[in-house]
Amino acid sequence: MSRLPTYYVSHGGGPWPWMREQTGGRYDRLEASLQAMAKAHEGQVRAILMVTAHWETPDFTLSSSAQPGMLYDYYGFPPHTYQVHYRAPGSPELAQRALELLQAGGVTARLNPERGFDHGTFSALQAAYPEAQIPVVQLSVLQSFDPAAHIAAGRLLAPLRDEGVLIIGSGLSYHNLRLLNAAGTVPSQQFDAWLQQTLTAATPDEREAQLLQWEQAPSARIAHAREDHLIPLMVAVGAAHSDAGACVYHEDLFMGVVAASSFRFGAVAAG
């Protein structure tokens, strides 16, 4: 079985795949990038481990239901978006495997059989895998947002890449809802330029060192006043370890106002 790369994807806003009438072509490039991710690994992905920005816990926690429900964790969207479903199965087996990998490395981790899919998971996966046939397990981020702890967790989870598990960190490379307007344009582009340099040009050791100090990046605290949507990146990078990074999606003016990007770590395996 080929080793799969890891990803950090910008997952867009709310339940956008079910809002084409409202959004027009605003998400076309993001959607195309997520579809390209799925196509690149067609027939190779046994399950997905989704590190979601929308689940914060004191300890790392894995969703372990065989049939996860839905969490409509957004507000002010059209009524029909609170009736949508992403019917992918869960994988108690993958949840247990990931739990054991974390615990073997001395990391406290738990299972949660009640957790349903949040929109950090189901919006991105509806675009990438609309058939919803691949089992999905969600991994929370720590409430502490400690970059080192998330990189270390990713390192422990890396063996899953050789077991047909696609590890995806789901967030947004820019996430400041108060500045999702023209005032956010330049700061978002400044932070994005730093991300590009750090994730695609730095050596793996430099990459991790710079991510540990991400708050020192240009406009870091404007791009991420609260870093919940950045932290899933740390798990993807930790699991990638020495693999090179590549930008797989970028817009200077996502939603017409801010820069946004997604990244892959590791090579695309031959079919």
Automatic annotation (TrEMBL):
Domain Extradiol ring-cleavage dioxygenase class III enzyme subunit B: residue ranges: 36-250
Q: Which GO terms describe its molecular function?
A: ferrous iron binding; oxidoreductase activity, acting on single donors with incorporation of molecular oxygen, incorporation of two atoms of oxygen; zinc ion binding
Q: Which cofactor does it need?
A: Zn(2+)
Lineage top rank: taxon: Bacteria
Pfam families assigned to the protein according to its UniProt record, in alphabetical order? LigB (PF02900)
Arranged from A to Z, the UniProt key words for this protein are: Dioxygenase, Metal-binding, Oxidoreductase, Zinc
The answer to whether keyword rRNA processing applies is no
Family as reported in the entry's similarity comment: Belongs to the DODA-type extradiol aromatic ring-opening dioxygenase family.
According to UniProt, the name of this protein is: LigB family dioxygenase
